[in-house]
Design a protein that fits this description.
The complex is a heterotrimer. Chain A is mainly alpha-helical. Helices cover 75% and strands 0% of the residues of chain A. Chain A has helices at 2-6, 8-33, 38-47, 49-65, 83-106, 112-135, 149-172, 182-211, 220-250, 255-278. Chain B is 17% helix and 24% strand. The two termini of chain B are 34 Å apart. The complex binds ligand MGD (2 copies), iron/sulfur cluster (5 copies) and molybdenum atom (MO).
């Protein structure tokens, strides 16, 4: 786990950013599925600060991961070739658009179809961003990372985490219950289910891939055994979080329950990310 | 374009680590940082039978590696800032400390464990091929240090001419050369196993962190 | 192969849990990157100068060092290099330790001022004093000791940290002050140096140059790791690599440990149980005798004692010859068949047979031995047996052969600072100095090997420890040494001179801050296949209140009223110059003093020497200086010399090179301590020197080598902390689980710094001497420090 601890800031980033981004997907789904009153929108917009805060914390963590944040502007120098440049570029675009969306929404400048269109753009960017977070680790020389499982798991975390955080936001905005919300709940439930499958599936695939790698310098089986406890923790907490989330979507949605689900998912994803960094296995030394 | 390269003679190397410490002294590297590492590869067993007699299939050899200034470097590809760059005149790969953000991606990508991030310095650090010395017509410090004369440095062309029995760096525990086309020519010892062999291990993990 | 290296890679320079996060917030980028590289430096680059010097620690390299100095500080250390040097250009290149000298030179732990002890002996508490106070105290204590007890209560402990032509100034001083108790032996070669003269005499006993083994077709290296123990310079690291590249001979390295010299040449390893080489030789001899493959002409013409025919008259008819021992005709009635040897050595009988055939058919057999096999309880006989091996097949004095001693070291002779004859004649084996402190007056010729007197008349009361760590760390049984030295009523005064507070220094009453040889003018000579002399000048000005050993001695001499006798009006530099000029006058090829200082290093090539070739050519005209003039396989002299000696029940003073089981060996392990523990000299240190340099420790971890069989049985994995324990102490150390050591035997490198600072009786430094004995070997009374047994558990 020592290796993962060294990447702690990145683990924070790759936990919070996908979940924060995914929340906008959830909001987009909700906005497409139900008609909210202006009051509801006002309350929802207020609560939309939460995913933005998560994103900002995530970005800040990634910033602190750098040994020289003062040169950070140079990070776009490798655009196109460096997966990291690509990730940050997409991330920044997403963040700017998301923030813009939120500011305009707060200013009451978004109504009706404009809002719907805008949130859809944000949601699509969110998905792309999640994908690029995963792709940042698609490095040829690190076979335990260079698998589709890496972006897939991040997309899964974005969807699962986003749907649950979305649920919380909507319920905090008192806009989750009632018959007219059934289709929203259904949509979020599907989003959660898809996310859970991709998240668990992706992370498990990655884990199994790592376990099968043997080089003269590293033995994947031993490395996975060493972090198996963390991975089991991820699975248990993630499934528990998803089930609580699902429960709150199926039954009447209550803030404390949704909060519990959000906390569980964040903890679980964080564990999965630690495991991910612990399983950096090079083809070489 | 000139491409500089290292030559390593596995039949002469004794794993003494003088090359590594010469570099660490010259570059004033403290605990935690080294630009050159000496990997000990080990395979086989030494056992005692019921009669108390030994048989051994133990194979053990050392490989001294720094940055190989690869023709197809994994590090420059992932570098988001272009700080990690390959000099067009010498082929040496080094860090532009004015650009580096210390993200560590070069470290992750390099299959030779060459670059590391030095937080105090605020950038990644690694072997630069002693480029100042090389430009002044001298050899790298590590190369001149080797008491066993197992190391050499020069343009890839010259080295290939001078050491016709040298091969691509394709021996365990190094990764296969195809990944980055390292500019490291090796004369393998009789013990050497092909890159990718997984019957053996890096036997000195504490010495190559 | 199961063990691998988890978490091997670390992203950051700062390693450890939470490392990244901890520094992430904390450290801003360095100023350089804040303002970019373009910012002009505040001060102009200081001029760089280069000085020459030499390594002086006890390793035969004495390497040439080139100091790059800026602003009166060394910025990096280069050595004897040049770009155009190809593999065949001999250069005295420093090893990794020499390359790390700057860390020691500039260490914050260096002793900078004279100090006096303020805590208990061993506690390590000292207080700065003036040079006047230090010198007064030393001179007073010396006068007091001489007046109260006599000069034979004064002793200079064995110490090897400073080699140069003027490094022995304390011997000169104390000889001039009325004398001191002598020692004989060394910790390096006690057993082999004792036995060799019995067999080969003294004058022609040296081995062949390594390079002459180019002509051999079989090379047997017993217990030696030339690339590890002669790592830099132009010594055997280079010579051995050259030999290996050139020789047509097949090499076998016979060692319980796959030592570093085998790296990349694995098929050369012939694993053996430690302490059993004499049994291997006996097994080979049996096979040779049985097949009529011994060179009887040689054995009868050049040797005595091989068989009945060549026994000295008085011992005929007593079945005391080596051949009778081997063939089961001597008192033990046991034939030393390959099967017999296999059980003891661990080398399969078939392997012994096939090796015997290789030996018998070799046209030139080159037998070389290191000093590992002899630093043992039975080392006299082990080393003797190895020397016997080439004699059995007449492979002595011919091209490509060697005589089974260590390889020759060719060097140019230089004169050292002279000492007058020591007025005290009594001499003790250096390994018994703790006995001489504890109960010197009971030490006798017959029991303890005291020489020149029958019994000592004093315990040691005043001791000088100049450039050594042999009072504790490098001596046997550190815990026992602690008890003896801590008692101030025993040795009443100890002077320590060093550069750092090594463990031994903690027992000293006054500490004096020495200067490295490259901080002063110095000359040294050494060599192996190639000889060289290094001459150097101070790398910087004198820092703090450090002084040279010569200056210290001159100050003490002044207080004793013998300053002029000591200095003869000369400074150290003037002495060096005078001595060198006299040498150069005798050896016209030597450069002048000024030329030498200009060059830094003077190298002399040499064709290579074949051991005992003159004796082989004409054994009468060039008779050996043994009693018979021949090679003595049976030593009547040994029997005579040891007549009346007190011998323990588990030892024997055999007059032939027979196998004698070790008292802590493969045949004498116990249920409590089932593992044999053997030591070796490690690349990370020269003994304890450099043992505190963190950057060297980082890459050269202190580990116990343990075979997977033994590790698995104890649940031990690569990198685990383990406890190694026996009756003498317990150490905490990391495990190196490796096929590079034979099952049943574990190996620990000697020289790590003893550290019991946790106060729980455990040595966390992993010093092997926490586990070694103070019992000497039977004949030489030498240090058997490779002979140990132990048990290991997971910590
Ligand atoms: N790097 C380094 N070099 C050194 C030193 C150092 O501390 N570090 N010390 C220097 C000094 S002062 C000396 S005296 C020399 C010491 O030189 P040596 O005494 O030759 O060195 P050792 O390592 O004690 O032993 C050499 C080899 O003998 C093996 N050995 C031990 N016992 C037996 C045995 O019973 N039979 C056989 N066949 N092999 C055995 C050991 O495993 C080891 O590999 O080295 C000098 N050089
Ligand atoms: N168990 C075990 N013990 C052994 C051995 C073994 O094989 N096994 N080997 C033995 C052998 S062969 C030997 S030779 C001894 C060696 O034992 P020592 O002679 O004690 O050698 P070192 O431990 O190197 O200690 C040298 C000391 O000199 C100091 N020094 C270095 N340079 C200078 C200088 O310029 N001036 C002064 N004043 N001090 C300086 C160093 O700091 C260090 O404290 O150890 C013996 N001990
Ligand atoms: S200095 Fe030479 S012999 Fe020693 S490890 Fe380096 S390459 Fe090998
Ligand atoms: S060895 Fe690593 S750091 Fe050096 S050029 Fe190749 S990939 Fe880059
Ligand atoms: S640490 Fe510096 S050199 Fe390495 S990838 Fe990041 S920016 Fe490039
Ligand atoms: S070339 Fe220079 S920087 Fe690179 S490893 Fe060698 S000495 Fe160090
Ligand atoms: S320790 Fe020995 S090999 Fe190393 S620099 Fe000193 S003399 Fe040379
Ligand atoms: Mo020694």
């Amino acid at each position: 786990m020592d290796m993962a601890m060294q990447e702690l800031p990145l683990a924070f980033f790759t936990t919070l950013a996908p979940i924060g981004a995914g929340t906008f997907i959830a909001l987009a789904l909700a906005f497409l599925r139900a008609d909210y009153s202006d009051d509801q929108f006002k309350r929802i917009d207020k609560m939309t600060i939460i995913p933005l805060i998560l994103l900002v914390i995530g970005f800040a963590a990634s910033f602190f991961h750098l040994a020289n944040p003062l040169h950070a502007m140079g990070v776009f120098g490798g655009l196109g070739s460096s997966p990291l440049s690509n990730e940050i570029a997409v991330g920044v675009v997403f963040l700017v658009v998301a923030a813009l969306y939120w500011i305009l929404a707060m200013m009451g400048k978004l109504d009706g179809s404009v809002r719907k269109a805008f949130i859809c753009v944000v949601a699509v960017l969110a998905l792309i961003f999640a994908c690029f977070i995963g792709l940042a680790y698609y490095v040829d020389t690190i076979p335990s990372w260079a698998t589709p499982a890496a972006p897939i798991s991040i997309i899964g975390f974005a969807l699962a985490g986003g749907s649950i955080l979305g649920t919380l936001i909507l319920s905090l905005a008192d806009s989750m219950n009632g018959d007219e919300m059934t289709s929203v709940k259904k949509a979020l439930l599907i989003m959660l289910a898809v996310g859970a499958v991709l998240g668990i599936g992706g992370a498990s695939c990655q884990f199994v891939t790592a376990a099968g790698i043997v080089t003269a310098a590293t033995n994947g089986a031993q490395m996975t055994t060493a972090v198996a406890g963390y991975f089991a923790g991820f699975l248990v907490i993630f499934i528990a979080g998803a089930m609580i989330g699902a429960y709150s979507l199926i039954k009447e949605t209550k803030v404390p329950v949704a909060t519990g689900a959000v906390v569980a998912i964040i903890v679980a994803v964080f564990l999965a990310r630690l495991v991910f960094y612990a399983l950096e296995i090079s083809i070489g030394l | 374009m000139t491409q500089y390269a290292f030559y390593f003679d596995g039949t002469r190397c004794t794993g003494c680590k003088t090359c590594e410490f010469a570099c660490r002294d010259y570059n004033d590297l403290q605990v935690g940082t080294t630009y050159r590492r000496v990997y000990e590869y080990e395979q086989g067993e030494t056992v005692r039978d019921n009669a108390g007699c030994f048989t051994t299939s133990c194979v053990n050899y050392s490989v001294s590696v720094a940055c190989n200034h690869c023709t197809d470097p994994a590090c420059t590809k992932v570098c988001p800032t272009g700080a990690m760059h390959k000099d067009p005149d010498t082929g040496l790969v080094s860090v532009d400390t004015n650009k580096c953000i210390g993200c560590g991606y070069c470290h992750m990508a390099c299959p030779y464990n060459a670059p590391k991030v030095d937080r105090e310095k605020g950038h990644s650090v690694k072997c630069d091929g002693c480029k100042d010395r090389v430009l002044a017509g001298e050899d790298p410090v590590c190369v001149e240090a080797c008491p066993a004369r197992a190391l050499a440095f020069g343009t890839r062309e010259d080295l290939m001419k001078k050491y016709p029995d040298a091969q691509m760096a394709d021996i365990a525990p190094l990764p296969e050369a195809k990944y980055t086309s390292p500019n490291l020519l090796i004369k393998p010892s009789a013990d050497a196993k092909p890159a990718g062999t997984i019957d053996g291990i890096v036997a000195n993990p504490l010495e190559v962190q | 192969m199961s063990e691998t290296n988890l978490s091997r890679r670390s992203f950051l320079k700062t390693t450890g849990t939470l490392g990244a996060l901890a520094v992430a917030g904390g450290t801003a980028a360095a100023t350089e990157s804040l303002f970019g590289e373009g910012v002009p430096q505040a001060h102009a680059e200081a001029e760089e100068k280069i000085t020459f010097g030499h390594c002086a620690i006890n390793c035969p390299g004495r390497c040439f060092l080139k100091f790059h100095v800026k602003d009166d500080e060394v910025v990096w250390v280069d050595t004897n290099t040049s770009k155009d040097a190809d593999v065949d250009t001999p250069q005295a290149r420093a090893c990794l330790r020499g390359r790390s000298y700057r860390r020691w030179l500039q260490s914050p732990d260096r002793i900078n001022y004279p100090m006096k002890r303020v805590g208990k002996r061993g506690e390590g508490k000292f207080e700065r004093i003036t040079w006047d106070e230090a010198i007064d105290t030393i001179a007073d204590k010396l006068k007091y000791t001489i007046n109260t007890y006599g000069n034979d209560a004064v002793y200079i402990d064995y110490a090897t940290g400073s080699s140069a032509t003027t490094a022995r100034c304390f011997n000169r001083l104390l000889a001039q002050a009325g004398g001191y108790l002598n020692f004989y032996n060394s910790y390096s070669t006690a057993q082999i140096a004792c036995i060799t003269p019995y067999m080969y005499g003294t004058k022609q006993a040296g081995g062949s140059s390594l390079k002459t083994a180019d002509d051999a077709d079989l090379i047997l290296m017993f217990g030696t790791s030339p690339t590890e123990t002669r790592q830099g310079g132009l010594t055997t690291h280079y010579d051995y690599v050259q030999l290996r590249a050139k020789t047509k001979g097949k090499i076998y390295v016979i060692d319980p440990r796959f030592n570093d010299s085998l790296t990349g040449h694995s098929d050369e390893w012939l694993p053996i149980n430690p302490g059993t080489d004499a049994a291997l030789v006996a097994g080979i001899a049996h096979e040779l005798i049985k097949n009529n493959q011994t060179d009887l002409d040689f054995l009868h013409t050049y040797c005595v004692g091989f068989d009945e025919e060549s026994m000295p008259e008085t011992y005929k008819g007593k079945n005391m010859s080596y051949s009778d021992y081997v063939m089961g005709l001597s008192s033990d009635k046991t034939e030393k068949t390959p099967e017999w040897a296999a059980k003891i050595t661990g080398i399969p009988a078939d392997k012994i047979r096939s090796l015997t055939q290789e030996i018998a058919s070799a046209k030139a057999l080159h037998v070389d031995q290191g000093w590992g096999p002899q630093r043992r309880s039975n080392g006299e006989w082990t080393s003797w047996a190895i020397m016997l091996l080439p004699c059995l097949v007449g492979m002595i004095g011919l091209p490509g052969t060697s005589n089974g001693t260590r390889e020759d070291r060719y060097s140019i002779s230089l004169t050292n600072l002279p000492s007058p004859a020591n007025p005290v004649k009594a001499s003790i084996p250096c390994f018994l100095f703790t006995d001489a402190i504890d109960h010197g007056k009971q030490m006798t010729k017959l029991k303890d090997g005291v020489k020149n007197v029958d019994q000592l008349s004093n315990d040691i009361k005043f001791m000088v420890n100049y450039a050594g760590n042999c009072m504790t760390n490098q001596h046997g049984n550190v815990n026992k040494s602690h008890e003896i030295l801590a008692d101030e009523s025993k040795c009443e005064f100890i002077l320590g001179v060093d550069t750092v507070l090594c463990d031994s220094m903690k027992y000293c009453d006054i500490l004096l801050p020495d200067m490295f040889r490259f901080e002063q003018v110095s000359i040294v000579n050494t060599g192996s296949d190639t000889a060289y002399i290094v001459g150097g000048q101070p790398c910087t000005s004198v820092k703090y209140e450090r002084k040279t050993g010569y200056e210290m001695c001159a100050l003490i001499a002044d207080k004793l009223g013998i300053k002029d006798t000591f200095t003869e009006g000369l400074t150290q530099e003037e002495w060096i110059k005078k001595l060198y000029n006299a040498d150069a006058a005798k050896d016209s090829k030597l450069p002048s003093y000024d030329e030498l200082m200009e060059m830094g290093i003077y190298t002399r090539e040499h064709a290579g020497k074949v051991a005992m070739n003159k004796f082989r050519a004409d054994p009468v005209a060039n008779a050996l200086d043994t009693p018979t003039g021949k090679i003595e396989i049976f030593s009547e002299k040994l029997l005579k010399y040891t007549k009346g000696w007190e011998v323990a029940s588990d030892e024997e003073l055999a007059p032939i090179p027979k196998y004698i089981p070790e008292w802590y060996g493969v045949e004498t392990t116990t249920d409590e301590y089932p593992l044999v523990l053997t030591g070796f000299h490690y690349r990370g240190r020269t003994h304890s020197s450099w043992g505190f340099i963190d950057i060297l420790k980082e890459i050269n971890p202190q580990e116990v080598w343990i075979n997977p069989t033994d590790a698995d049985a104890r649940g031990i994995k690569q990198g685990d902390h383990v406890r190694v324990k026996n009756d003498f102490g317990t150490i905490d150390i990391l495990a190196k689980v490796t096929a590079r050591i034979v099952p049943g035997v574990v190996g620990i490198s000697q020289g790590a710094w003893f550290n019991n600072s946790k106060g729980d009786g455990v040595d966390y430094g992993g010093c092997i001497n926490t586990l070694t004995t103070q019992r000497p070997s039977a004949l030489a009374k030498g240090n058997p420090q490779h002979t140990n047994i132990c048990e290991i558990t997971k910590a």
